Structures are given as structure tokens and as C-alpha cells.
Amino acid sequence: QMKKLIVIATLFCLTSVSVSAQHDHSVHKTEPSVSTTTASDNKNVSQLLTLYFSIKDALVADNANAASAQAAEFVKTANSIDYKVISEGNINALLKDAGRISETKDIKQQRNLFANLSTNMAALAKAVKLTDQPVYQQYCPMKKAYWLSSEQAIKNPYFGSSMLTCGKVTETLK
């Protein structure tokens, strides 16, 4: 019943969008539309990945204070991104995980929250170009969780110094 309702609502939205798009053609004849993303939006999106890597590096180094501080910066940057660049739902998912990491100094809890943040960042990295550099998706079989890295070498954020090189590269995202 719920699935049927979602399908109907989705079809209704798509129909409404296409109908309004058809009526819009005669109204605006001024200039071709240009992308509304600005250089600062792109910089902020790239900054998200940089800050994500900083959170990961803090967890690798067993540094809960740094992880918390970097997560707080991540939240600030995520809040500054326009919903036209990254959808509100995606931003809110990232904010929830990073916000909770920033609020705790318990490294075990931070690492548990980081697994979900990593899943959401991987989805974002596959949908939006975050960097010109390769991004490696890596997997920890002990934690059964993924993370992203800017380098192929394994530095495990889930166990830090106790199991630093546990894991493997599963995918290279461009």
C-alpha cells in the first residue's frame, strides 16, 4: 500500500514538472540558462571531501578531539552548500552524522558514526565530482564498513593504531 502511494506521488510530481516545463517555454525568451552553481559552491563541495579526510585521519591517529573539531568544520561547510548543488536530503544525512561526531569525544562512538558518514560520502562522491584526484573506497572486514581515502595505502579509521593496515581498496571513484 505504501509503495503504491509513493509510486503515485512520484508519478504525479514528474507529471507536474513536465507539464509546467511545457508551459514555461513561451514565457522566458531572454538568454540561455546557465548553471547556477558558483565557484564558491564547487569550492565548498570539494572542502567537504577534504574535511571528511581530516575526520578520517584523526580517527586513524586515535585522536577523538581532532575528529570532533574536524567534524564541526564539516558541519559548517555542509551548512553553506546550496541545495541546488547537493540535495537537502543528502546534506541533512551528512549533517546528522558529522554533527553527532562533533558532539562526542568518545572515539568508539565517533568510529561507529563515521561508518554511516562514509556511506553517505561515498554516495555523494559517486553523484557529484568532488575532486580531480582519484578517491579510493576502502573496506574493513572486521568492522564490515567502508571509508574513503585519497591514497591507496590502507590506514584504517575504525581501529586506528591497533589494526592500522586492516582492509582493502574495493573501488576507485573518479
Keywords:
174 residues; single chain; 10% strand; mainly alpha; globular; 56% helix
Task: Summarize the structure in words.
The longest helix is centred in the first third of the chain and has 23 residues, at 2-24. The protein has a 3-stranded antiparallel beta sheet with strand order 2-1-3. With 174 residues, it is mainly alpha-helical. A hairpin with a 4-residue loop joins β1 and β2. Helix content is 56%, strand content 10%. The chain has helices spanning 2-24, 39-60, 64-79, 88-102, 107-127; strands at 135-140, 145-149, 168-173.
List low-confidence stretches: 2-37
- Through-space gap between termini: 39 Å
Structural category: mainly alpha
Helix content: 55-70%
| Average pLDDT number | 82
* Rg (C-alpha, Å): 19 Å
Query: What is the percentage of strand-forming residues?
Result: 5-15%
Oligomer: single chain
Secondary structure tally, helices: 5
Largest sheet: 3 strands, antiparallel
Shape: globular
What is the succession of H and E elements? HHHHHEEE
